[in-house]
Backbone:
């Protein structure tokens, strides 16, 4: 089955002032209807270019972009307008019209699409209720907080009942608490309205909170993609490991490790924690069987898709052969790394 959004061998090269910049390089991507799919990457990785190809604000240099089976790289401007009607978009800076009220902002795309006054009013009322901002209907954007502005942005993007919502760094201007509220609203847009959401972000925490699947973009290429839980649990590239570390904070390195060393004289190991890998039983009998004590000295465990995930660093104190035996037993259950002395 093909996805709702598909990239097949997409390359995008910009040429400006005699310079060629390859913003995207051989992108293959398939996003199923109903997914919340995140694209994560550092600044300059090509995220905005990718999202602009979905609504045909840019055209691919090579390859094709399919929306619901239609190759939009070959469409006339007139047919593109129809495709774009099925795609809503929200932005980092909200892009609301300052001279119009909340109601006026949300009604605007309906006016453009030719809805009559009564249907417009009904639709806007319904949307403002859905995003929880009814009491601000007659306020202007400048009178709203960032989170409220983004709620208006979401209502406006949903006005014409799109099947796809593009969220380009939609929470990057918000504090963590407001980010959480907006992400919960987007999740409702996905589950209650069935809208497929493509989230563009540089924050792994956003991926963790909302996405089912993720693709990691690095210098114009997808270096990793899959279910969020799998990518978090087994990051295969250095770029992904760096992103995952920003959320889990689960492994000591650099200064943290040096400080641990000064405080703990025993052998240090880091053990991976996942739902199906339980180390408690092995550890709880280590003293009686191997004369080895342990202290938990570092770690982080988060809940992701209903499963715990993370790492714990332990100091093992006891006779060397007892510690060796315990590490061997733990390795039968999970991944264990001994931190060099
Ligand atoms: N219109 C353009 N002309 C020339 N180069 C461009 C153009 N748009 C993007 N680029 C270049 O393409 C590369 C990818 O840019 P893009 O904006 O897609 O990355 P990004 O991941 O969205 O980064 P950011 O988060 O900083 O916006 C960058 O090297 C950028 O300079």
Residues:
């Amino acid at each position: 089955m093909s996805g709702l959004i598909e990239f097949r061998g997409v390359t995008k090269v910009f040429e400006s002032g005699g310079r060629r910049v390859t913003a995207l390089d051989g992108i293959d991507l398939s996003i199923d209807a109903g997914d919340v799919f995140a694209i994560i990457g550092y600044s300059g990785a090509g995220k905005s270019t990718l999202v602009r190809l979905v609504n045909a604000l840019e055209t691919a240099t090579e390859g094709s972009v399919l929306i619901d089976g239609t190759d939009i790289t070959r469409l006339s401007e007139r047919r593109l307008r129809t495709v774009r009607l099925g795609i809503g978009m929200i932005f980092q800076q909200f892009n609301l019209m300052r001279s119009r009220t909340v109601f006026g902002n949300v009604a605007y795309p309906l006016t453009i699409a030719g809805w009559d006054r009564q249907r417009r009013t009904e639709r806007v009322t319904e949307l403002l209720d859905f995003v929880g901002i009814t009491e601000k209907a007659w306020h202007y954007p400048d009178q709203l907080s960032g989170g409220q502005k983004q709620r208006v942005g979401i209502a406006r993007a949903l006005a014409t009942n799109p099947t796809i919502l593009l969220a380009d760094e939609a929470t990057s201007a918000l504090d963590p608490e407001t980010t959480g509220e907006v992400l919960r609203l987007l999740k409702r847009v996905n589950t209650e309205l069935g809208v497929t959401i493509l989230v563009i972000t540089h924050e792994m925490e956003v991926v963790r909170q909302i996405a089912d699947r993720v693709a990691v973009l690095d210098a114009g290429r997808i270096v990793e993609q899959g279910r969020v839980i799998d990518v978090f649990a087994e990051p295969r590239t250095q770029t992904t490991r760096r992103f995952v570390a920003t959320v889990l904070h689960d492994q000591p390195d650099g200064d943290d490790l040096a400080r641990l060393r000064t405080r703990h004289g025993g052998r240090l190991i880091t053990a991976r924690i996942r739902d199906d890998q339980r180390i408690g039983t092995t550890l709880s009998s280590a003293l009686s069987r191997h004369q080895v004590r342990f202290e938990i000295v570092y770690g982080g465990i988060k809940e992701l898709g209903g499963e715990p995930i993370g790492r714990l660093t332990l100091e093992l104190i006891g006779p060397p052969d007892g510690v060796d035996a315990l590490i061997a037993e733990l390795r039968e259950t999970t991944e264990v790394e001994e931190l060099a002395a």
User: Anything to note?
Assistant: The two ends are 52 Å apart (CA to CA). Residues 14, 16, 21, 23, 41, 43-49 surround adenosine-5'-triphosphate (CB under 6 Å). Residues 251 and 294 are 17 Å apart (CA to CA). The first helix runs from residue 47 to 54.
